[in-house]
Amino acid sequence: MNYSTAVQLDKVWKRFGAVEAVRGVSLHVPAGCIYGLLGPNGAGKTTIIRMIMSIFFADEGQVSVLDGQDAAAVKDRLGYLPEEKGLYKKMKVGELMTYFARLKGIEDREARRRADELLQRYGLGEWRERRCEALSKGMGQKVQLLITLIHEPDLVILDEPFSGLDPVNRDLMRDVILQMRRDGKTVIFSTHIMEQAEQVCDYVALINKGKKVLDGSLSEVRSSGGRAAVLDYDGDGHLLRDLPGVAKINDSGKQAELLLQEDADAQQVLAAILGKVQIRRFDLREPSLHEIFIRAVGGADDA
């Protein structure tokens, strides 16, 4: 790579009739990082991705990719996995992967070599001569990911890549994303599940109702939220109400996130819990991205 910025958005707006899908969003995605676009369904994440890919064009503002160009000028250096996925069901798996590699300008013999290598590496070698219609849903999603990567793109954009995956394939997707960063690639992915972003992202942007409400490195964003304790417990969570030094509790039934007041003594909080429930774990940490997002959205200007 000979560039320091993979993607730059400067005060970008996108409207569909009377609907303002993206409202004045500015983003900076450093090269070689994993960048998460986070927010609820309908927040504008997919519209932002499609503008980065030059599928849509901004009504106002500027979008630049890799060396400051638009995506159309560097399309062979990009990999894109849309949220709405699909395969040509009658084509054979190896044939389909080779076809998409050829579309990216790769010579036929090299395309077939890369297809074989990827299929073997990810446990699909025996499916090379099978038609795509015979693939399970999980295997089909894996093949679509390999198609996205076969031309070894510098920038990979994944729209809700974890959606619908079982635990085994979620772990595979995570491992592939981490490997791409180790290989010096830039990965942008969207998700509405904050825990996924916390596992892998270097940088995040929180999007709500078409507006950016918060962005920065993951460590910066999380450290802005104060202090929290994670409690794994057995018992009646209602007994955790009104704990001294606790501003808010996010209780999931067996695990609770305790948002601590600024001057709270964590040892006193722990002492107050003893005897109320059976404690399996009590860890001090920064608040979750979920909690930070809820706070940010609650204070955002929706005008």
Key attributes of the depicted protein:
alpha/beta; six-stranded mixed sheet; four-stranded antiparallel sheet; globular
Topology:
Blueprint: E1 5-16, E2 19-30, E3 34-38, H1 45-52, E4 60-65, E5 78-81, H2 93-103, H3 108-121, H4 137-149, E6 155-159, H5 167-182, E7 186-191, H6 194-200, E8 203-208, E9 211-217, H7 218-223, E10 228-234, E11 246-251, E12 255-260, H8 266-273, E13 278-285, H9 289-298
Parallel strand pairs: 3-7, 3-8, 5-6, 6-7
Antiparallel strand pairs: 1-2, 1-4, 8-9, 10-12, 10-13, 11-12
Describe what is shown at a glance:
By secondary structure, the chain is α/β, with parallel strands linked by helices.
Commentary on this structure:
The protein has nine helices and 13 strands. The protein has 303 residues and is α/β, with parallel strands linked by helices. The strands form three sheets. Strands 5-6-7-3-8-9 form a six-stranded mixed sheet, sandwiched between helices. Helix 2 packs across helix 3. The relative contact order is 0.14. The mean pLDDT is 91.
- What is the strand arrangement across the widest sheet? 5-6-7-3-8-9
Show unreliable segments.
none
Q: Major beta sheet, specifics?
A: 6 strands, mixed
Kindly report the average pLDDT value: 91
Number of β-strand runs: 13
**Envelope shape:** globular
Cα-based radius of gyration, to the nearest Å: 22 Å
Beta-strand percent range: 25-35%
Q: Roughly how many Å apart are the termini? A: 41 Å
> How much helicity do the residues have?
25-40%
Number of H/I helices:
9
What order do the helices and strands follow?
A: EEEHEEHHHEHEHEEHEEEHEH
